[in-house]
Every structure is written in structure tokens, then in C-alpha cells.
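step 3/5: co-fold with zinc ion
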Amino acid sequence: MPELVESISCPKCGGPLTLAPGEVIVTCPYCGTASRFQGNKPFILRHSMLTARVDRDGALRILEGWMDGGVMKPDDLRKASRVTSLECTYLPFYVFEVDATTNYVGVLTRTGTNERRTGDLRRDFFWKILARRSGDFPTREFKLPLAFKVPFDTGGMVRDSRFLNAEVDEDEADRIAREQVDDHQRELLRDLVDTVESARTSIEVKDAEFLHAPIWFSSYTYRDRSYPILIDAASGEVIRGEIPPPSGGFGEFVKGAARDLFRR
Ligand SMILES: [Zn+2]
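step 4/5: write C-alpha cells
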């Protein structure tokens, strides 16, 4: 059991809360209130969750469908695989509604002429920041379907699921989001100019939201090896699934041969 930093209680219902080392925002397991503890005054946050529309059976069906489909997978993937774990965990995220404008000066060389370009690159985003420090969750690949957003309610959670508290507070998340948006804008500039002479991005955060998103964390074994797969429990999409290398079976030999035949 993790060592508790201090003994605290929920500012809304008075229930006892446990704050593990590194956690800065705790969600009350009794009433679902999220509070930030800094000094001795708790601060209550607006807090949402995404509705889980995929239960355990649904997650299994999605897993099987994923194994059946796609050209890069071994032919016997579904038949020869065994699902070894399947757990639903609610991960904490911040979502920032951001307007970004990058004023740039650069040179376009790809046309053969050194053409100087200036302009404003304007974009708006819903930018996601995972509020945990550990783990290699693919936040950028995760679409985070905001259409399924509802107020946080422990009664509406998937049975036997758990939620993780936030280790990153909203101020730090805001800083990270601004840095990432700035980097992203610079990447987008590459479509417009080949050499960037100057780029200044101004970022306006219009709204910030703290929410928990339900994810099915699963792993399966195939030929004595284990592979992870993540399913968005709100949308039902596979966020990321690891595919075993080709087994070299007869079916794949035929597919490969046919590919070679028709390629030329
Ligand atoms: Zn409470």
C-alpha cells in the first residue's frame, strides 16, 4: 500500500480521501468531487467524465474484431490468441480549448525560386494533456471523444473499474499545452515555407476542462508472447494495438506470393 502524504477529507461530503505521493488532485470515491490540495485549503474543480458505452463483453468483441481485420496481421491471430487481461481504468486528462496564431517569416525554396513568405498561421485545437507522469499512454493518438462528456459520477462508472488521480495540476498542464501547441505550429509551418526565419506564436487558452476518460487496458498472448492493446471505452475505437510479427504461415506465403505477382 502506498504511503499517505496526509490525512484529508473531501470538502464536499467529508469522506476520507487518500492522496498518494505525487498526486495533486484527488477525486472523492464517495461523491466524485475533484479537489486540489495545496497548503491547507482544498479547491474544488469542475470535473467531467466520458460515458463508457463499451462494457467488458463489448470490449472483448472489439478485440476479436480487431484481430480478424487488417492486412498486416498473422492469419491465425484471433484463433491462436488468448486475452490474458482486460481492465477498465479512468485516466485523468486536461482538455484546453486553444486559439493559436503564428506570425512567420520564411523562404520557400521548393519551387526553385527563393520566394520570401510572411503570414499568419491560425489554428484552433482541443489540446489534451494526460495528468499522469508515468506510463506511455499514446495521448496524441487518442481522439478523446468529447461528444460523450457528462458530469463526473462514480455511479455511472464501469463496474469493477478504477480511476487514477491527477499528478499534474492545471497550471502545469496549461504550460505543457502551450509548449506543445507552439511546437505543433512550427511543424505545420513546414508545409508553408522551407526555411523559417522567424516565428512567433501567440496562444489563447479559451477554456480548460478536467475529465476522466475510460480506457480498456488489455493484453493478449500469441505464440508465447504478450502484446498490449488499448480500447477507448467511450467510442469503442482501438487506440493502439500491438501486432505480432508475421508468422510466415502458408496463408501468408500465398498472400505474399500474390502480392509479388501483381506488383509488376
Ligand atoms: Zn466527497
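step 5/5: annotate
The two ends are 62 Å apart (CA to CA).
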